[in-house]
Write a sequence for this structure.
């Protein structure tokens, strides 16, 4: 009997770490494994009222990370000690578990954006996380590390210099039934519901960190791509206000449509002709796979999974973080028959199901189970 414990701050449908753990849990159970959760709730973290201000949200997030990394670690270790036959997979924060899934390298993300020392010093949570992760990667907390892409595996070693724990590359999956190419009728309905022009090339940007993910670059590219409308999903009120001001200064505000955070990206991918993400750093970039699975070609910098799944000029473009180049690529797609691009995008995503991802995790789980039995 295969017994797995997944450790994460939260596990549930949606995006991010919680969604990844949820999808893996479903596939593990479907394969016949017994799966348990250890989340902040199981660790005893009491639910609290959601703060109303952005500062309150940041303070709440910092407190949650620190608590789950410390108190959560102690309680997770007790939880696992009671289940010696289980193989544990940790997704974030807790310093325990047989396998640690690297969902992002904070220090790499900060360095990619410049002013590294300032970014680290002005946020105590960054300093705490940097120390915690150095202990994690340079020590023996876990028995294996999972990197989500070949590039992230190399970056892990470049960042920490020496990682004695074995590193395995296991890419995230994508829900190929939920994310599928839209029909022409579905595309027209999606655009009408959002209020997008029917005759423009619609580029969609999806992300909550506008600066790191490159929204300013996309907006700066629009003057060079006059036939392109930009749909922006995500962001805080402050980020949206600043970005709208930028588009107004460039004279492209009438072509930029902000819809704010949305629980479901599917309607916005259905409305799009191209997905654009000139990001400074991605540990994986699941939304890239979601776009490809939706039959939407991708214009992205060479981050995360992008260089492994985007074939330049075939199902998208790999670009530098340069507004001029991004504008050129968007302009190239304007007026083209995109049916071939959509087909090639979908074909590239077809091999990245959650079933395939879970099978690779299960192979690692069985390997660790066998080594546990051999231990004295």
């Amino acid at each position: 009997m295969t017994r797995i414990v997944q450790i994460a701050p939260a596990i549930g449908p949606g995006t991010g770490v919680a969604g990844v753990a949820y999808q893996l849990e479903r596939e593990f159970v479907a394969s016949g494994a017994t799966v348990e959760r250890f989340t902040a709730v199981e660790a005893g973290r009491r639910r609290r009222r959601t703060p109303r201000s952005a500062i309150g949200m940041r303070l709440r997030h910092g407190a949650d990370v620190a608590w789950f990394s410390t108190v959560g670690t102690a309680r997770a270790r007790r939880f696992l000690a009671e289940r010696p036959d289980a193989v544990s997979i940790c997704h974030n924060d807790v310093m325990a578990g047989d396998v640690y899934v690297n969902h992002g390298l904070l220090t790499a993300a900060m360095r990619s954006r410049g002013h590294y020392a300032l970014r680290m010093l002005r946020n105590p949570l960054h300093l705490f996380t940097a120390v915690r992760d150095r202990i994690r990667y340079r020590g023996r907390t876990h028995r294996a590390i999972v990197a989500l892409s070949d590039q992230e595996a190399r970056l892990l070693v470049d960042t920490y210099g020496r990682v004695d724990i074995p590193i395995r590359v296991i890419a995230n999956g994508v829900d190929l039934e939920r994310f599928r190419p839209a029909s022409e009728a579905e595309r027209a309905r999606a655009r009408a519901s959002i209020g997008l022009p029917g005759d423009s090339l619609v580029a969609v940007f999806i992300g909550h960190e506008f600066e790191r993910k490159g929204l300013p670059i996309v907006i700066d590219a629009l003057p060079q791509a006059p036939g392109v409308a930009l749909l922006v999903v995500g962001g805080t009120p402050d980020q949206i206000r600043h970005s709208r001001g930028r588009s107004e200064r460039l004279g492209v505000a009438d072509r930029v449509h902000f819809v704010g955070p949305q629980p479901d990206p599917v309607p916005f991918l259905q409305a799009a002709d191209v997905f654009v993400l000139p990001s400074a750093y991605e540990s994986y970039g699941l939304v890239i796979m979601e776009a490809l699975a939706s039959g939407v070609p991708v214009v992205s910098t060479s981050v995360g999974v992008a260089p492994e799944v985007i074939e330049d000029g075939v199902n998208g473009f790999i670009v530098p973080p340069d507004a001029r180049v991004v504008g050129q690529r968007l302009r190239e797609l304007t007026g083209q028959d995109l049916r071939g691009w959509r087909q090639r995008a979908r074909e590239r995503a077809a091999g990245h199901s959650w079933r395939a991802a879970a099978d690779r995790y299960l192979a690692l789980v069985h390997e660790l189970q066998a080594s546990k039995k051999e231990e004295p």
Observations:
- The CA atoms of residues 126 and 357 lie 30 Å apart.
- DSSP finds 17 helices and twelve strands in the chain.
- The mean pLDDT is 93.
